[in-house]
Amino acid sequence: MKVLSVASEVYPLVKTGGLADVAGALPLALGKLGIEMKTLIPGYPAVMSALRDVAIRMTFDDLLGVSADVLEAKVAGLDLLVLDCPALFDRAGGPYLDTHGHDHFDNWRRFAALSKAGAEIALGNMPGWKPDLVHVHDWQTGLLPAYLRFADTPAIPTVMTIHNIAFQGNFNADIFPQLGLPPHAFDMEGVEYYNQVGYLKAGIQTAWAVTTVSPSYAEEILTPEFGMGLEGLLNRRVSDLHGIVNGIDVDVWNPQSDKDLANHYSVGDLKARRENKRAVEAQFGLVDDDAPLFCVISRLTWQKGVDLIAQSADDLVAMGGKLAVLGSGDAELVNALQAAASRHPGRIGIKVSYDEPLSHLMQAGCDAILIPSRFEPCGLTQLYGLRYGCVPVVSRTGGLNDTVIDANPAALAAKSATGVTFGPVTLDNFKRALRRAVRLHGDTKTWVQMQKQGMKSDVSWEKSAGLYAELYSSLLPKGSH
C-alpha cells in the first residue's frame, strides 16, 4: 500500500507541537507493517538546509500564482517530498508566524498551495509514484481532500487527522476565487464555513474518514464545549470519525540510551535517575534535596491550565515540593511564574524557551510532570513521562484520560496506577491533586511502583499504527492491497 502523508511540520526538521512528532513517527511505524508512506512538507529554510541528494520530481509553473518544485529526499529514515517554493516558504520566522509573532500575511495561500501540490501528486501527476490513499493533518492541509473531491477524476480515499480542533484556518471569502476550486465548492457541502473559507471544515466535510488523536477527544469534540463550532458537522460524520491515540518514538525517547541525559537508567534501576534530578536542579538553580520535584514542559497557555500552576505555586512550595518550568507563551502567565520563582528562590525555577534536549533531561530527572489541561486532544508529554518514570499529574480530559491510570485505592491495590488524575479542572481540584501527589511521593514503595508501572506502559506507535493500517485498508477497494 502506498500512502501520501501531507503535513505542515515534521520531526526532526521542523516542530511547533505534537503534530510534528506524529508526522515523523507514524511513517516509520507503518513501514514495519509494509506500508510505503511518503510525506509532503513545505520547504522552510530549516527543511531545505537539511536536504542532501535531492531529486526534482515535479515542477509547477503556476501553483496558485507561484512557481514551485517538488523535491524528493531521505532524511532521518523518512521518505520526504518537499515543496520547494521560495516565494511562500523561504522567509524568517516560524512555520505559521513571522518574526513579530503575527500570522504570515499569506498563510491562506501558503497552505492552499501545499494542499494543491499534494492533490496533484495524489492524482498521479508526479511521474513514477501514485499513492493509493492520502492522509492529511490539521487545517494547513484541510483543502487537499476538497481539491480531490472537486476534481474531474476517479475518487481517491482520504483520511483527515484533527490534532487540535481549536486551530481551524478560517479566512475571508474573498480568497476563494484564487484557490483554483470550482464555484460550487463554495458551499456548505464544500469549503464554505459561516461565509468564510474554512480549511479544517473543508477537510472534515470532504475527507473519506476523519480521525483524531485519542478516543476520549473523539467523543469530546462532538459536544459544544469541545467542538469549537464544528460539533454539528462532526456529529453528521460520526460514523466516519475514529479516535486513535498517538504513540511516541520509543527509540528517540529511551532512558537507557538518550544522549541528553546525565545518566542512563532502566525500570530495574531507578536509583540511577538521581543523577538526572541533580542535573535538573543545577540547571534551574534549585536546592539539592529529596523533596518531590515537579516539572512543567509546555506552551504556557490557558488551554494547558498554566494559570492554575501559577496560582498554586506558593501552595506547592508550602506542601514541600519544588517546581521546574520550561516553556514559552502568554506574557501574563510567564510573568506570574517568574514572580513565583523570585518569591521562592531555590524552590521554583523557570526557563522561558523551547529546549528539546532539556525537556528530555527533565523527564528523566523530575519526579512528576504537571499537565492540568482544560482540553488535550492527545498530549505527548504524559507519554514521555510514563516512559521515563516521571509520574503524570493530569486532568481527566482527552488523551490524558486515555493514557494515565489514576492512583485511586483500587488501582494502587492492583498495582496498576501510573499517575494522578483530577477533574473537573478547577483550582481547588488541582491543589488536591498536588497534595495527593506529594503524599504518594512520601511513600517510597508506592511511588516506585507507580514509576515502574508507567515505564512498562506501551506508549509506542505499534498498536496505533496497526489501527491506522486497518482504517486505510477499510477505505480501499476490496482486493486492491
- End-to-end gap: 6 Å
Low-confidence stretches: none
Mean pLDDT score: 97
Structural class: alpha/beta
Globally, the shape reads globular
Number of strands: 18
**Tally of contiguous helical segments:** 19
Give helix % range.
25-40%
Q: How are the strands ordered across the major sheet? A: 3-4-5-2-1-6-7-11-12
Largest sheet: 9 strands, mixed
Tell me the β content. Answer: 15-25%
The radius of gyration over CA amounts to 23 Å
Describe the structure.
The chain is α/β, with parallel strands linked by helices and 481 residues long. Helices cover 37% and strands 19% of the residues. It is built from 19 helices and 18 strands. The strands form three sheets. Strands 3-4-5-2-1-6-7-11-12 form a nine-stranded mixed β-sheet, sandwiched between helices. A six-stranded parallel β-sheet has the order 15-14-13-16-17-18, with helices on both faces. Strand 16, helix 14 and strand 17 (391-395) form a beta-alpha-beta unit. Helix 4 (107-122) packs across helix 5, helix 5 packs across helix 6 (199-206) and helix 14 packs across helix 18 (444-456). The longest helix has 16 residues, at 107-122. The relative contact order is 0.10.
